[in-house]
Design brief:
298 residues; 78% helix
């Protein structure tokens, strides 16, 4: 194996596919950090159009990720421009990542009707309803009670959606106890709701593994490999959604902080976190996972 293959195991076709799917998102983050949300939004739109041309020419289909991301970005970017509140742009990352994680988790679940879907989303629905009628802490209690009943009924076997909901809620409940601030429980509702919506959309729209549908003409793995790849990325999107909220709520937009000898606002720290931590971590994670997936290559 050549030295290039060891560090960049993609051919030209695979590179075009990857850049078309993820390039516009990376461009948006970089331009947004340098020139602001207006320029970042325009950068996303322009590079998405470029990706569409490249993907249609090469694979006869448009890129999925940039189309979804551009729609969400334009909607929340418009809210930021209208309200002059950067919170909308920040929380957009959380909602999109949680939505997409739910969408990916639905790859392992077969839709058979509204009643079955309601049963799967029952714990989150119970938490939302009780939180609205009784209070946030009551909603969390309702979630764990329903999860316990589901665990007994399923004889100890819960779905991916159930486990990830338990994990997210446990993290935010822990932050609520540590900070004595109910904002964490409110955030938990936002993340879990986005997760549920993404799962419902994926269950009703997709009938196969999402990443397999997007990349099957570029990468060739066994079904076990595709499932592992998709589940791993779904959990990674959950991690980034939760991490985004932790940074957003820890460093408030209306306050100034001293970081590494620099005076930075909350939004400055958030942008730096996206560029310096999340972006390199995402690239490293994708690279390591792709290298690991070689054992499932056909």
């Amino acid at each position: 194996m050549s030295s290039r293959k060891r560090f960049f195991p993609f051919n030209a076709e695979q590179t075009i596919n990857i850049l078309s799917e993820f390039g516009p998102l990376v461009t948006m983050f970089v331009v947004n950090a340098l020139y602001g949300i207006n320029a970042g939004t325009w950068a996303l739109i322009i590079t998405t159009l470029m990706a569409i041309v490249a993907m249609v020419y090469m694979f006869h289909r448009p890129p999925v990720f940039p189309l979804i991301a551009s729609t969400v970005t334009i909607a929340f970017g418009s809210l930021t421009l209208i309200t002059h509140d950067p919170m909308w742009v920040q929380i957009k990352v959380t909602i999109f990542n949680a939505l997409f994680a739910g969408f990916l988790f639905s790859s392992f679940w077969h839709y058979k009707g509204p009643r079955q879907l309601l049963s799967e989303l029952g714990p989150i629905a119970a938490m939302l309803l009780v939180s609205w009628l009784v209070g946030l802490q009551g909603g969390v209690l309702a979630l764990f009670v329903v999860m316990g009943i589901s665990l007994i009924a399923a004889r100890g076997r819960l779905s991916d959606l159930d486990w990830v909901t338990i994990g997210i809620t446990a993290v935010f409940v822990g932050l609520d106890f540590a900070w004595h601030d109910e904002i964490w429980l409110k955030t938990n509702l936002i993340v879990c709701s986005a997760l549920a919506v993404g799962f419902a959309l994926g269950a009703m729209i997709m009938r196969e593994n999402f990443f397999q549908y997007v990349f099957e003409k570029t990468f060739h793995y066994t079904q076990e490999g595709w499932d592992l790849f998709t589940r791993s990325f779904a959990w990674f999107f959950v991690f980034t959604a939760v991490a985004n909220e932790v940074v957003r709520l820890t460093f408030r937009d209306d306050q100034t902080y001293s970081m590494l000898g620099l005076s930075m606002t909350g939004i400055d720290i958030w942008i730096a976190f996206k560029l310096v931590v999340i972006l390199p971590l995402s690239g490293l994670y994708a690279w390591l996972l792709t290298k690991w997936m070689s054992r499932y290559h056909l």
